User: Fold this.
Amino acid sequence: MLKLYDDFKSIVLSNTPLLDVRAPVEFKRGAFLNAVNLPIMDDEERHLVGTCYKNSGNEKAVELGHQLVSGDAREHRINAWIEFIDANPNALLYCFRGGQRSKISQMWLHEHGREIVRLKGGYKAFRNFLIQSLDEAYGYFKPIILGGRTGCGKTLQLKEISNAVDLEALANHRGSSFGQRITPQTSQIDFENNLAYAMIQKIERGADYLVFEDEGKHIGSVFMPNSFISAMQEAPLLVLETPMDERVEITLREYVMEAQNIYGAEGFLEWENSIKNSMKRIEKRLGGEKYRVVSSLFEDALHEQIKSGSYEKYKDWVEYLLREYYDPMYDYQIEKRSQRVVLRGTASEVKEYIKNLSI
Assistant:
């Protein structure tokens, strides 16, 4: 008997591996953590079958699908599924609605001596569960917001807090004008799915409070869910205060040294252009004169690195950006929410405050 499964919460809590047999274009639009895309039909085949379905009905569409995915192509896809199942014996299978594609995949695997359970309702049902869970999650914990000027080390602090949810990591973006990463940013759907996973797992472990970094309504191209924004609007705000020299070091390490390592020597020019494009995006807000200064400081630092290998001159560029661009914006935003600030302090003082929340 071909089995179905719909205990979606257990999938999240167990980080269950998932076999997604939808077409690549569907997977790219939105998928789940721990899911691998091994489609039963590629994008072109799916398009042809979909057109046939509209024009001639389900029976003809299924018939065409079997014609398109037959012979060596069919065996190659089944073998890929078998390899995945052998490596992940507890994996579950899904297509979009848990209908014909996953059922046929499940049947083919059965015929090849492999059993796999498929998700009841498929991607759509699991996605609906995650969105509903996300909307309901905010009634189970007290939100705490960790703020502070750019480069103060908020992300470093979050990594040391067991009850923290790193929104920038989930979005694959550092949250600032210079925050884009070398890998593509998470899609909106994937971000929401990943956030739901994180919240469900934290709440299940008994977290009565969760700490989030102070973010706006979006991180890069990803927007916060409305339910998240509503829940955070009145949350207590901790402001991490860090000396300028430490902020410069943290920013230099992350946005210059680590970023260059990720791009690699062959990608140095690409990194340089990404920084210049980021500066160009803030030119209007920065103002003409300050834009010329910050551009000149960057060119000086760039030439010094090329000449001697030293990163030292980047410190002048980083500090100028922090003082003239980031700090005024953040100070303005924090002033509007000053009534929510419950602590302004060092990293150790922030840790102590959060530690006392658990007592």
Observations:
- The chain has a mean pLDDT of 92.
- The two ends are 51 Å apart (CA to CA).
- The domain at 4-131 is CATH 3.40.250.10 (Oxidized Rhodanese; domain 1).
- The longest helix spans residues 314-336.
